[in-house]
Amino acid sequence: MSILRLEQVVKTYQNHVAVDQVSFSIPEGTIFGLLGPNGAGKTSLIRIITTIIRADSGAVYFNGEKLNSKHPSQIGYMPEERGLYRKMKVGEHLVYLARLKGLSKKAALAALDYWMDHFGIKDWWNKKVEELSKGMQQKIQFIATVIHEPPLLILDEPFSGLDPINTNLIKDEIDALRSRGTSIIFSTHRMEQVEKICENIVLINQGRNILQGTMEEVKNRFKENLYEIQYSGILPEGLSEKVHIVREEAQSFTVQLDQESDSSSLLRHLLGNHIQIVSFNEILPSLNEIFIRQVGNDFKEEIS
Question: What CA–CA distance (Å, rounded) separates 41 from 69?
C-alpha cells in the first residue's frame, strides 16, 4: 500500500510551471529519494504535500485519503534551512514545537527526555539555539521532526552540517524509524547517500518526473553490459581479438558485451582459455552518472 500518491499534480507561479503533471507513489515503510537539481520543482512538491500551498490541478492522497488539513499533523518535515527560533532555549523550543504537533506537555517532556538522552545532549536544555553549531542545530531540528512519531517524514538534506560521526548517528536513526514502519522522503544532492539509503527514487527536472523506480530497476535500465575481471597469472595472447576489452590494468580488465551475448558465455569463454579468475563482476553505473546523463549540465553543476 502507498502512504502517499500524487496524480498529475500541477503548480504554476504566474507564467512559470514549477510542477508539471507529476505522478508517483511512495510505498509504506520505505525510504524514497526525491531528487533533482535546483529549480526542478522539489520544494514546490514538498510544500504541496505538507499543505503549505495547494496544487493548481491533480490530486494528492495520504494513506488512501485525499490530502486535507488534518494530515500535516501526521507528517514530520525537516527543511534544509534551519526552522528554529534562535533566541529560544533548546528545551523550551522543543516542547513548544511538540505541543504544536499535538502532544500534551507531559508527553512532550517524556519524548524529549528520551531523545535528548539518546543523543547525549541533555546538557543542551538551557542553551539558546543561537549558541549551537550548525551540526548541533541539525540534531535539534531532527528531534523536532520526529518527536510526534509521524508515519511520514520528509527530510531535506538531513546530514547538512554534520560530521561523519553524527551523520552515521542520524542515518542509524533513519534506518531504525524505517524498520518500525515509518515512511521517509529523502531529498539530497548527495547521490552516494541516496544509493546507500533509498529503496525507490524519482528524479524531477524542469517540473517533470523524468525517471523513477527502485534502485535496482534504475541501475539496470542504464547498464552497458560491462564486466570487470580480476585474474592472476598471465593472459593468453590474442584474447583481445575474441572479446571486446575496453580497459586493461594490472591483473584486471574490463569487457563490454554486445546485446546478443550474456555473462555466462563470457565466463565460460574465459575459463576455456585457462584464465585464472579471481573475481568476475558486472559494472553498473552509479546514480551520480545516471543523473548527470539524464539531467545534463544543470545537474552536474549542482553536485560539483
Answer: 22
> Please, which residues bridge with residue 19 across strands?
11
Round the average pLDDT of the chain to a whole number and report it: 90
How far, in Å, CA of 155 to CA of 140, rounded? 14
CA 75 from centroid of its chain's CA atoms = 17
Alpha-carbon torsion (254, 259, 263, 267), positive or negative: negative
d(CA 156, CA 83): 12
- How would you classify residue 50: left for phi > 0, otherwise alpha for psi between -120 and 50, otherwise beta? alpha
pLDDT surpasses 60 at 301: no
The amino acid present at 140, given as its one-letter code, is: I
Over residues 118-132, mean pLDDT: 92
Q: Domain segments of the chain: what residues?
A: 2-219, 224-283
| Cα angle, residue 300 at apex, residues 294 and 303 outer, rounded to 5° | 120
Closest by CA position to 5, among listed 67, 52, 53: 67
CB atoms within 10 A of CB 1: 9
Q: Which three cell numbers stand for residue 71?
A: 494530515
Distance, CA of 133 to CA of 267 (rounded, Å):
54
Homologous superfamily, domain 2-219 = P-loop containing nucleotide triphosphate hydrolases (3.40.50.300)
Q: Are 191 and 291 in contact (CB under 8 A)?
A: yes
| 264 has pLDDT over 70 | yes
DSSP-assigned states of every residue in 185-225: EEE-S-HHHHHHH-SEEEEEETTEEEEEEEHHHHHHHT---
Tens digits of residue pLDDT in 100-112:
989 999 999 999 9
* pTM assigned to the model: 0.85
Please give the CATH architecture assigned to the domain spanning 224-283: 2-Layer Sandwich (3.30)
Measured between alpha carbons, how far is 147 from 96 in angstroms, rounded to an integer? 11
CB 76 within 8 A of CB 150: yes
Q: What percent of the chain has pLDDT over 90?
A: 68
